[in-house]
Amino acid sequence: MRKFINYLKESYAEMTKKVSWPSWDKLQNSAIVVMVASVIFAVLIFAIDFCFQHLMSFIYTL
Q: pLDDT under 70 in the chain at which residues?
């Protein structure tokens, strides 16, 4: 149990003194970039899926 308590204390000290946290503006900008990239990726996957669906339907109807 002593090792676990020591681990928690060291973790807290590292998170409060050694980690450099981004500013609120940088955090918001990063979140926006991730959301835009996710939407672009989702649209791309949708387009590929749509094309393959119609291609396979065309091939199976031959």
A: none
